[in-house]
Amino acid sequence: MAQKTALIVYAHQSPGSFNAAVREVAVQELTAQGYTVTVSDLYAMDFRANATRDDIIGDLKNSELFQYGEETMHAWMEGRLSDDIVAEQRKVEEAELIIFQFPLYWFSVPAVMKGWMDRVLTQGFAFSLEKIYNNGVFKDKKAMLSFTTGATQSMFQPDGINGDINVTLWPLQNGTLHFCGFQVLAPQIFWSPAHSPAAVRAAMLEGWRQRLKGLLAEKPLTFAPCEFFDLSFQGGFQLRPEVREQQQSQPYGLTTGHHLGKPLPPDNQTRAPPTDEATPHSQNHPCV
């Protein structure tokens, strides 16, 4: 039987941080379940965030105009990506579960983790024109965000000062993880641990430990499947007319991003719906 594998992409500067404690709980619990757990500690690795010419070994395809995406795609195809990228891509290939562990910085991931996404998820390796979203390269893998916030949960409500956390998460969960095909598990959000009593922080960690026990059995978040769209330049890659007509009678939009001018479906990016509500699920439909 093949060894179960998990990768934790971790970004925090301090080994004494709450994020470090969360990471350790994940390592312990997944190891206890029989997983081989690999941690990419990006700060400790001094992982380079900026995507540059140094990521390509050898000559460029077009030395007149450097286009990072095109050049790294060719370099991946020809085995000419830099060693640090290749090492991380190998970890991704081996992992059936990837957890991104980080503190929320400016409504997103820290720069070093964004750099990991920019550099490691190269075209060809992580996606292609034919292999995106529910037909993506990593459609058989699961991924999730686990992060801490400085703000309280009430501040990230639809009527809170920071706005709806579902909107905040859409670019990362849909535009990066789901775009590459990952089945995206609901995020694990640790609300304002720095401003919480020790007992509350301990309860947060215990809640995370309990969730990890059944994590791989969870249903992923739902996204609009590719079959809902006209996947042609003539059609503009827009929602098919018959799908739009079907959605007219619905009280909410399809997803946080495909809201169709309607109220956003509640908790679309923070909670997987019950099975009988998961109609626009992305995993079971061919993209092209």
From TrEMBL:
<keyword id="KW-0285">Flavoprotein</keyword>
<keyword id="KW-0597">Phosphoprotein</keyword>
<dbReference type="InterPro" id="IPR003680">
    <property type="entry name" value="Flavodoxin_fold"/>
</dbReference>
<feature type="domain" description="Flavodoxin-like fold">
    <location>
        <begin position="5"/>
        <end position="212"/>
    </location>
</feature>
<dbReference type="GO" id="GO:0003955">
    <property type="term" value="F:NAD(P)H dehydrogenase (quinone) activity"/>
</dbReference>
<keyword id="KW-0963">Cytoplasm</keyword>
<dbReference type="GO" id="GO:0046872">
    <property type="term" value="F:metal ion binding"/>
</dbReference>
<keyword id="KW-0274">FAD</keyword>
<protein>
    <recommendedName>
        <fullName>Ribosyldihydronicotinamide dehydrogenase [quinone]</fullName>
        <ecNumber>1.10.5.1</ecNumber>
    </recommendedName>
</protein>
<dbReference type="InterPro" id="IPR029039">
    <property type="entry name" value="Flavoprotein-like_sf"/>
</dbReference>
<dbReference type="GO" id="GO:0005829">
    <property type="term" value="C:cytosol"/>
</dbReference>
<keyword id="KW-0862">Zinc</keyword>
<comment type="subunit">
    <text>Homodimer.</text>
</comment>
<dbReference type="GO" id="GO:0001512">
    <property type="term" value="F:dihydronicotinamide riboside quinone reductase activity"/>
</dbReference>
<comment type="similarity">
    <text>Belongs to the NAD(P)H dehydrogenase (quinone) family.</text>
</comment>
<dbReference type="Pfam" id="PF02525">
    <property type="entry name" value="Flavodoxin_2"/>
</dbReference>
<keyword id="KW-0479">Metal-binding</keyword>
<comment type="function">
    <text>The enzyme apparently serves as a quinone reductase in connection with conjugation reactions of hydroquinones involved in detoxification pathways as well as in biosynthetic processes such as the vitamin K-dependent gamma-carboxylation of glutamate residues in prothrombin synthesis.</text>
</comment>
<feature type="region of interest" description="Disordered">
    <location>
        <begin position="244"/>
        <end position="288"/>
    </location>
</feature>
<keyword id="KW-0560">Oxidoreductase</keyword>
<dbReference type="InterPro" id="IPR051545">
    <property type="entry name" value="NAD(P)H_dehydrogenase_qn"/>
</dbReference>
